[in-house]
């Protein structure tokens, strides 16, 4: 609930950032891109900080701290949005504060969910996309009053999330500390082997590459589709279908996972392969239906792949390092979102949209390879134990 509402509030603002900086503040799209790059960088720092704080002070205090920073920044934005400096500083605060909350929420979900496996992370993934769908659907209504109304709406939603967490998460934290499991704060942190780092690193290489590819739909595909004559309404329909599929197609996905794609490694490889197929289709189409087919394939791929990465990080993390590992995962995804538009834009400007797609296809093949071998660095004993845990915690919708 907290994740869905927080993402709803954030979705009031992020689709309009470039528009506000360009039209309201009178700055170029290059300046807008630089400001958003800085905003994402603050999110990376927040991810790392939040993960480490989770391991030291627990989820409740970490999430409250991150949300408090975000609330202050969102209210400051209401009054400071008229200048580039004020807008930038507020976005830095929002990025850092919000970024600190997500690793703690992911780590908390993984530690308190009784059955383990990918269930908690799949639930977080669905909640995030539900928030995006609701938030982006409300933008038109809110901005129709006045464009800057989104600042007030964003601030109000963050205050609600802060109060909700303050009231409800304390019970979750208390239950966790007084239950049969050992408190994270009292846990003895095992010395991490190099094999664990290598395995996680291989997964994160795939994760980063796929986020770089995925963000092209939010950046360069939107421009390319309009160059081909598609309307903004048609482009927005791609994301409507994306959100509906993620929320409504979970029962169908669970059948495939339970019967055929039973291990985390297979789920990753299948998901990334569907990314590859999606971009092959994208490279060949110039009409609405073709773009929609590419988006549907991409959506199925992300449904397989995105929840697996935090699941693997949680399984690899020793007691007391869950937060740090989730912080690394979230920072890698944020880095991919930060680098993707810039990387793709350079390829399109220097060469062409087709060349960008072909380069991405090459990188996606690398991602398939690194995902397929991520278990190899694990020591034989640990690998057997890890695989057994995988089979015992197959995702059940």
From TrEMBL:
Q: What are the record keywords, sorted?
A: Cell membrane, Membrane, Transmembrane, Transmembrane helix, Transport
What is the protein's major site of localization? membrane
Q: Which residue ranges does the record assign to the Major facilitator superfamily (MFS) profile domain? A: 1-379
In the bilayer, the protein is annotated as:
Multi-pass membrane protein
Q: Where in the cell is it found?
A: Cell membrane
Which InterPro entries does the entry mention?
Answer: MFS, MFS_dom, MFS_trans_sf, MFS_Transporters
Output the Gene Ontology terms for molecular function: transmembrane transporter activity
Q: What is this protein called?
A: Multidrug efflux transporter
Per UniProt, what is one Pfam family of this protein?
MFS_1
* Top-level taxonomic group: Bacteria
A Gene Ontology cellular component where this protein is annotated is: plasma membrane
Residue intervals passing through the bilayer = 25-46, 58-79, 85-109, 121-143, 149-169, 196-217, 237-257, 269-298, 351-374
């Amino acid at each position: 609930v907290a994740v869905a509402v927080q993402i709803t509030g954030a979705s009031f603002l992020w689709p309009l950032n470039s528009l506000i900086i360009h039209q309201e503040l009178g700055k170029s799209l290059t300046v807008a891109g630089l400001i958003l790059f800085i905003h994402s960088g603050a999110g990376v720092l927040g991810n790392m900080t939040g993960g480490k704080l989770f391991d030291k002070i627990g989820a409740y205090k970490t999430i409250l701290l991150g949300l408090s920073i975000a609330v202050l920044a969102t209210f400051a934005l209401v009054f400071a949005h008229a200048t580039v400096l004020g807008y930038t500083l507020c976005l830095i605060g929002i990025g850092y504060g919000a970024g600190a909350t997500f690793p703690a929420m992911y780590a908390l979900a993984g530690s308190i969910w009784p059955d383990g496996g990918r269930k908690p992370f799949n639930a977080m993934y669905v909640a995030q996309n539900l928030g995006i769908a609701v938030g982006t659907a409300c933008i038109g209504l809110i901005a129709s009053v006045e464009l800057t109304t989104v600042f007030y709406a964003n601030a109000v939603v963050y205050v609600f999330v802060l109060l909700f967490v303050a009231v409800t998460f304390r019970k979750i934290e208390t239950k966790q500390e007084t239950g049969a499991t050992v408190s994270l704060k009292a846990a003895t942190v095992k010395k991490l082997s190099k094999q664990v780092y290598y395995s996680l690193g291989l997964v994160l290489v795939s994760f980063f590459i796929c986020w770089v590819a995925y963000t092209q739909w939010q950046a360069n595909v939107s421009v390319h589709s309009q160059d081909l004559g598609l309307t903004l309404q048609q482009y927005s329909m791609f994301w409507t279908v994306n959100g509906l599929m993620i929320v409504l197609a979970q029962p169908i996905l669970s059948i495939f996972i339970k019967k055929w794609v039973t291990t985390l490694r297979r789920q990753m490889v299948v998901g990334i392969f569907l990314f590859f197929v999606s971009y092959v289709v994208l490279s060949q189409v110039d009409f609405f239906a073709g773009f929609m087919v590419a988006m549907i394939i991409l959506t199925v791929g992300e449904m397989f792949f995105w929840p697996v990465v935090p699941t693997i990080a949680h399984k690899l993390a020793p007691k007391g390092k869950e937060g740090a590992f989730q912080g690394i995962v979230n920072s890698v995804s944020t880095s991919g979102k930060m680098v993707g538009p810039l990387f793709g834009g350079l390829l399109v400007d220097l060469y062409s949209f087709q060349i960008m797609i072909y380069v991405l296809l090459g990188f996606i093949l690398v991602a398939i390879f690194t995902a397929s071998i991520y278990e190899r660095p694990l020591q034989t004993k640990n690998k057997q134990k890890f695989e057994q845990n995988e089979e015992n915690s197959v995702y059940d919708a």
